[in-house]
Amino acid sequence: MSYVVGLTGGIGSGKSTVASLFAELGVEVVDADIIAREVVAPGEPALAAIATHFGQEVLDSQGRLDRRVLRERVFSHPGQKDWLNALLHPLIRERMIAACAAARPPYCLLVVPLLVENGLTTLCQRVLVVDVSPEQQLARTVKRDHSSEQQIRAIMAAQASREQRLAAADDVIDNNGPDPARLKAAVAALHQKYLALAESG
């Protein structure tokens, strides 16, 4: 069983960039977003349950989940989000645990955007938060996703606050500045720290 470091951060914080830097150092990365897509792939029981519940219109012509249609259904009926979460969250959690258990030692990185919100910090020996100011989050995400400021603010409001995330953190990477070399150095230092912790733990 690998030592598990949970990586999280708000939208636009740079989680993916940080995860890639750890991966370059040979660290195995377990990504909740990838697992979330896998559990609703064609042929998966969860996809059949979603189509039965919401109607065949949530599937595209290839029989894959049409996320945009599903999102519209869920947003127009708030109670449906609870139904969807009750179906998917246990499946995603189960696969994350299995992937971490199968990961090569000494440690693996579990990347979960909603690690704090969904009470998943218990799956990790250590929590690493990528921290940026709300202003940075907004500017980066609007630029990256070409979404409206209003949409991004709504997503940020639904996530844990910066204070809540920092309260759950064992380690913090400050990603406010556009300095790739500094970010790389911070990841390299933490990598050494995690190797030592995994060795001793």
UniProtKB/TrEMBL annotation:
It is an enzyme of class 2 (transferase). Its EC number is 2.7.1.24. Coiled coil: none annotated. GO terms for molecular function: ATP binding; dephospho-CoA kinase activity. Pathway: Cofactor biosynthesis; coenzyme A biosynthesis; CoA from (R)-pantothenate: step 5/5. InterPro entries: Depp_CoAkinase (IPR001977), P-loop_NTPase (IPR027417). GO terms for cellular component: cytoplasm. Belongs to the CoaE family. Catalyzes the phosphorylation of the 3'-hydroxyl group of dephosphocoenzyme A to form coenzyme A. PANTHER family: BIFUNCTIONAL COENZYME A SYNTHASE-RELATED, DEPHOSPHO-COA KINASE-RELATED. This is Dephospho-CoA kinase. It comes from Zobellella denitrificans. The gene is coaE.
